[in-house]
Amino acid sequence: MAESIGLPKLKISFQVAAQTVANRSKKGYVGLIVRDTNAQGLHKLSSTTLIPSNLGEENKTYIQRAFTGSDRGTPSLVYLAVIAPNGLEEEGTQALEGGLKLLESVSLDYLAVPRDASPEELTLLTTWTKAQREAYRTVKLVRPFGKAGSDHMGIIELDEPTMTAGAASVTGPEYCGRMAGILAGIPMGMSCTNVPLPELTAVTARTVEEQEAAIDAGKLILVRDGMKAKIARGVNSLVTIPPDGSADWRKIKVVEGLDLITYFLRTTIEDSWVGQYPNTYDNKQLLVSFILEYLQYLEGQGVLNPGSSYCEIDYDRQLNWLKSQGVEVADLTRQQVLEYQTGTWVFLRCGGRIVDAMEDFEVLVNPMSLAMAA
Q1: Structural domain contains residue 130
Q2: H/E element holding 186?
Q3: Does residue 16 have a pLDDT over 50?
Q4: pLDDT tens for each residue of 36-83
Q5: Contact by Cβ (8 Å): 110, 183
Q6: Are residues 41 and 12 in the same domain?
Q7: For 367, how many CA atoms within 13 A lie in the half-sphere containing its CB?
Q8: Are 79 and 205 members of one domain?
Q9: Where do runs of H (alpha helix) occur along the chain?
Q10: Which of 79, 130, 162, 227 has the fewest Cβ atoms nearer than 10 Å?
Q11: Is a pLDDT exceeding 80 seen at residue 9?
């Protein structure tokens, strides 16, 4: 039976030994969903002045929080999906599905759950996010922690049931938009660990042991250091490391680096290469050089370790493909294999080491040296 041609295939594989690399050409897009009788549909907001004026005040506050960002940056864009309010749980879920359909037409970095999401809707949002990421769309969901963790690198779970901002109480779901805005505004070379939250006067009280246990369980938590509230450690909900994965995938910054890479590869290949060039060795090398140039840019931006980037035609996969097509490869040199025609397929391998941010310090102070200096 002949093999089905199907749609053009874009296969991207992350491996610990050779992280697949490239980068988004943009960063900092947030997705929000609110329920309102007015202004239903999808809105592209570049500032708070573009928030629909006829929305309810609580919805306006939720959206404004997303634009706040942090001292490390603010989101550049908010995509707002306004869906119909429904009293019935089933109808509410259907309205949410409609909102997600709207958001599928745009590119997002972080999606916050609705501030009044039901348990069923949280499940729907989690399932939708996982499916998007399976399709190499690099959205990450910010949601409150539930009864059990999602255990997924694309799901960030805020475990702060109730916080205090001045005289007002703020729930975890109400704060997810704020967290999505913070994460989207973090520059490529920084993490969200220790980002201050000056408006919060109280967060969940935990001992040091409880804080460490929560972080190890994949919970994004807040702490107070005696002067201000801040993010304790930038972690996602991943706890179970896959066989071909890395413990670093639990860090929001590391996953953001991987997602920058995935976004660049997907959009660049789909938009600029699929169907547009003859599949020759020279054109493959042109694509290799283009990808490598971008990887080296990422090195300078603190995403990849300097000197760690590479990109080349994947000899092993190309050799296996030739064998599967009945080509006699025993007498072919390595260069002949690399230059051999491969139909519509392009096999590349690229990599680089993702750089984490400085978060843990050990500084030895010699008291005798200080005494002598005095």
Answers
A1: yes
A2: none
A3: no
A4: 999 999 999 999 999 999 999 999 999 999 999 999 989 989 999 999
A5: yes
A6: no
A7: 0
A8: yes
A9: 57-68, 89-103, 119-134, 172-185, 208-216, 252-272, 281-300, 315-324, 334-339, 367-373
A10: 227
A11: no
Report yes or no on 295 lying in a domain: yes
- Which two three-digit tokens encode residue 69? 């960002």
DSSP state of 187: -
In the three-class reduction of DSSP (H, G, I as helix; E, B as strand; rest coil), residue 288 is classed as helix
Same domain, 57 and 83: yes
Of the pLDDT bands very low, low, confident and very high (cuts 50, 70, 90), residue 23 is very low
Considering only CA atoms, which of 129, 130, 157 is closest in space to residue 142? Answer: 157
pLDDT tens-digit readout, 253-271: 999 988 888 888 887 788 7
Contact call for residues 50 and 63 (beta carbons, < 8 A): no
| Domain co-membership, 51 together with 142 | yes
Q: Are 175 and 157 contained in the same domain?
A: yes
| Residue 160 or 361, more confident | 160
Torsion of CA 151, 153, 156, 159, to 10 degrees: 40
Domain that holds residue 199: 29-187+193-231
Q: Which amino acid is at 2?
A: A
In the chain, the amino acid numbered 267 is T
Q: Is 57 inside any structural domain?
A: yes
Tens of pLDDT, residues 287-342: 898 888 888 888 887 888 999 999 999 999 999 999 999 999 999 999 999 999 99
Phi, psi of 141, rounded to the nearest 5 degrees: -95, 135
Q: Are residues 268 and 151 in the same domain?
A: no
Q: Do 364 and 261 reside in the same domain of the chain?
A: yes
Q: Is residue 313 part of a domain?
A: yes
CA distances from 225 to 161, 206, 230, 257 (A): 19, 12, 8, 29
Q: For 354, which DSSP code?
A: B
CA 145 – CA 57 distance, rounded (Å): 26
226 shares a domain with 94: yes
User: What's the alpha-carbon Rg for the chain, to the nearest Å?
Assistant: 24
pTM: 0.85
Q: Which amino acid is at 57?
A: E
